Amino acid sequence: MLDTVKYLIGVAGPSGFGSKSTADQVTSHCPKLHSITAIITGATSGIGAETARVLAKRGARLVLPARSMKAADDTKARILSESPGSEIIVMFLDLSSFHSVRKFAAQFQSLNLPLNLLINNAGKFSHRHAISEDGVEMTFATNYLGHFLLTKLLLKNMIETAEKSGVQGRIVNVSSSIHSWFSGDPISYLSLINKNKSDYYDGTRAYALSKLANVLHTKELAQRLEEMKANVTVNCVHPGIVRTRLTRDREGLITDVVFFLASKLLKTIPQAAATTCYIAIHPRLANISGKYFSDCNEVSTSKLGFNSTEAARLWSISEVMVAQKI
């Protein structure tokens, strides 16, 4: 009850920020980012677009991958109207397709740019069962596995950039507190929903699984980066409850009523982007890795999300999945 009251009134935590803090506020005293290159997935709307706007305002060079080039161009135009002179590169990427992820990574590498920040923000929710071209349930493919492969392909770039520049690289995985809604065996449930039938499919459970996978990915990657002695960190965030295009497959009366009733708990988009921006660029996060944040403060994951064995198991399965079509 006390935590709910603190959330509603925006009481600041140890970081000095809370649920009412905005992305502009949490970055207002951060160093300029003129030497920083950031890739932000899902930046054409909602939290991703606000994250891109704020980082451009601070001087970062942005690479915006998107399925809709028009939406990406529109986002670029909006950012340039506020921050003229910003360097923004728009590129095609469909995270549900391994081929598209590999093509994007190769095209980015051909630009010979540094890579300091990778913000894995894109996400989707769908109550309809669908399978990707690679044989993976679509929500899992888009929210987690595409980002797993993207991170894997770009990690060498990030490590080399950190070595050459002396500036620590940061990876931010955007998850959700809904990851705690998943119980049971993640791999067993994934194998069921990867089949070309929807008998076992539940949209909410599939979404929770994908967000749990983001948490477990963060945990295992942080350990591997530490073992490699790489000057790159990875952390995971819960942005908060906000109505974005994430719910585009569930628009309707029921969704409208639920969001109306929960309106007091909803964040604005600038508030929802605050934790991502804080983790991405605030100096206080130097050398902090493998953690989970909400309202710009470290919090605990679910018991399953804290399980190192499950994190290693998911990593191994993911390596196999991205290496071959299922």
From TrEMBL:
The keyword Iron does not apply. It comes from the Eukaryota. The keyword Oxidoreductase applies. GO terms for molecular function: oxidoreductase activity. Gene3D superfamilies: NAD(P)-binding Rossmann-like Domain. InterPro entries: NAD(P)-bd_dom_sf (IPR036291), SDR_fam (IPR002347). Keywords: Oxidoreductase. Belongs to the short-chain dehydrogenases/reductases (SDR) family. This is Short-chain dehydrogenase TIC 32, chloroplastic-like. It comes from Olea europaea subsp. europaea.
